[in-house]
């Protein structure tokens, strides 16, 4: 068994995994050395997370072998993975909210409980080693997203992991926090740990990784040295053909204020403030972007505008007509066509178990007189959308939950645009979509803008937001920390506003 | 595979793997297989306790159909079960766990009984019509109560509807022993037998309730599938946020649907009291409200399938009583058989979505 010239931390050979008819992974090969950062790049649905879940013992491969530190390994559970030194930092944190950082770190370890003092020393030692900043006593519910992520990283380090897998770790971070995370990762690499980072942000891949393995439709396409590649080449590998990567921002001359928001205050179910004194205008023929760290009030803002949340105070008027406190049904009855593409597409925007036809009915079934529903026009609209937006579905009666993320989004956005909206509110419309679908969605939004629709776009990719929108509204802890002109703003400025830094400075002066 | 390390040396013996979506025919086939297996397992059970399974099964079928009277008796069992199953199916479609059909049947029967006892002199058809509406009102209002609390205070409807069953049951006891006690019963606690004028007519030798049941199958089918309200029920059932997003008044829909669900169960109570029992007895619901929950789910909340499942249940019940009297098999055995069937049929739902993969064969071979 003298097979290793160089000892790999991880070697995957011919890994396959199917879910039903969907082949999520198809004969994937991948290797990772110690003291290296490998980026796993691929579009959504290309099988990155599935592959990493097999390494961390959540799924079991149908075929293929996994070697860890040169030896063939069977990973049947996360415990197995941990004892092999593999630690995964999931995209959605798995922490106990009411526990302190320290309790979360030791939770689930097999050894007997250490005294709090010894434990704190151990935690602090790891902190010092890698430059992680953490207060061991702080409760998770008091933490910011980046602090929670730090706890997740501590968790795997505490278990002695020397192979770390990070699933889209930067998705929830500001540009500044991302820099900090990268510094920590570089430190770990310097200390000989092997790191896999899953991402679809090309600039981050180029900034942090040594090598890149590209997945496309469940297959490992290629592995390239980061130093010898660029964004364009990576995109081509990822998509499978050359892609034009530019977003247009058509000019619309005539703009009128359509929706006026004044001093809006919204409280969540748990009595915490979601929005504080929000005031802004939405103009026709304009895309207004909304950015902020996850959970800064974006969801509440959209739902309040759409009439789903009743604000505690404030004014909300559509062309001088107050719509405050009105339900979506009442807003419809006023003759305002408000299109809303919510963040939770299948849980709010669509009925997951119904086909396209029945989903088209959702907002219009009431208009017909009598007690029966008329499915004919809905079916026609559904078929028209399938044609125009190239929606891939066996037929218009197939439950929408069986469609891919991109197609689900096309169904939803198609319906909302099909209703000829005056105001269009969209939350993360390209989340989970491949590059092609994303650009199609950007085009659709621009088209609406040209039709004098007032568009609100909540987004997360700051680069895209700066290119696509006309103005950007920045939210931080439910407050507006800036409404800026997209053309004259940088990503760094947005990042600072997202953390509320600029505002604090302004107050300090 | 010589040098394997890691903690566990081998893969687990059996793993579950998600299946591809099966075609409708395959699903149907799987259910039939489950039914056959259930009959086989039930047969083994009968064999173990010393009976000839073929003889027992034969007697069940024969017992349910051996004569015109036997068929009539089977249909009589079917009527309240069918109507009640349709009623609860309406609530379940909305994901509202109406476990209170038992109570709603009773309240429907109580309301209808009032007119049967005190207005027996009204013209026959008017009286029956009023009793029918009273039954609907009784069951509907009884169901509305937990629905109101649900939309106002978000109470747990499962417990609420369940507890109301016992209140309803004891209301009958109250009426039987107090205000509505039959003076001619000679101290025996009962409510007077209905005047013939207040009894449901017989059609083909069975009380007319079966016609009501069949009409309801069609009505509920059309209601759920083709009306705006039926559409609203499906949307609310799958996702309340979606319903609100679409501008639906979720509270109103919940209240309306629960009233309808209870009203249909109330009809079952009226039909049972005025058609089969000709009086109001504490056993008017007799567990039908609970069996209906099983029937509704086995029928996948589809009114036509519910009709079929009800027929099978009724045949089993009537046949078992014949087995009991002619072969001396305890009545509990028919419950065991029912349980076995349920176990297999519900268990097969798992296999519609997942399959097992054994070690080494891997998931490669489909």
Entry keywords:
heterodimer, A: 509 residues, alpha/beta, Rossmann fold, six-stranded mixed β-sheet, 20 strands, globular, B: 366 residues, two-stranded antiparallel sheet, 13 helices, 5 strands, disordered C terminus, ABC_transporter-like_ATP-bd (chain A), P-loop_NTPase (chain A)
What features would you describe in this structure?
By secondary structure, chain A is of the alpha/beta class. Chain A has two domains: 8-239, 3-Layer(aba) Sandwich (Rossmann fold); 257-350 and 420-508, Rossmann fold (3-Layer(aba) Sandwich). Chain A contains 18 helices and 20 strands. In chain A, the strands form four sheets. In chain A, strands 6-7-8-3-9-10 form a six-stranded mixed β-sheet, with helices on both faces. Chain A has a six-stranded mixed β-sheet with strand order 16-17-18-13-19-20, with helices on both faces. The longest helix of chain A is centred in the middle third of the chain and has 16 residues, at 175-190. With 366 residues, chain B is mainly alpha-helical. In chain B, a hairpin with a 2-residue loop joins strand 3 (202-203) and strand 4 (206-207). In chain B, helix 3 packs across helix 12 (303-327).
